[in-house]
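Question (not urgent): is this output format expected?
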Amino acid sequence: MVLGNTRGVDRAAMRRLAGEADSAVEAVDRVWDSDWSRRPVIVVPASQKDMASLVGSDGEGLAQIAAVTTGAFEDGLSRGDRVVINPEAFGTLGAMGRQVVLTHEMTHVATRATSVMPVPIWLSEGFADYVAYASTSIPTSIAASDVLEDVRDGEGPEQLPDIADFDAGQADIASAYEGAWLACRMIAERYGERRLVRLYAALNDSAGPGWPEETLELLGVNEGELVRDWKAYLRDEARS
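Got this back:
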């Protein structure tokens, strides 16, 4: 792991971050089997304002985000990917929270290494959370509290989360992340983790018809059936 913008940052904290990032890389390798660098660049800016500048954001809603993965696309592939930490949000997390965030971002780094086509955002964010939570013992009732509360209140999602649902500048994005995670976990439980990985790999290349047609090919259900099953899965989790 390579750390950037470390001037003025506590060295012990940076060593801890380096160790946590190494653990995150190992967690990704337990699920994602395509090649990637495994040497992520992590940038730790001095403030949330500096982070906004680095990622090209106006700062709206960044308090909800502990880190982002960013880079440039050349010839269809991502280049120069780096994880940019939000020091204010990341600094409030305990050890488990930091590990989840870093593993989530490392998953983005890994999958972007072979992505030629963008996958649906629910799959991108949901898969990153699936990998991040796979090696933890965090109860679903805690990790998905917002979306499950929405379901109990009769306000659960009707469709898989889209780009607007993940816009931190417009709304609370917790439910979108949680719903996307549970969609990916449902796929892994019903069809196997390797099938979930194959679905992601199939949708991020340019060889097939893409989303949602390849869902039918790989899972045997169309988009409507997948959404139906996911909504039932959310209801089951909300009752448990």
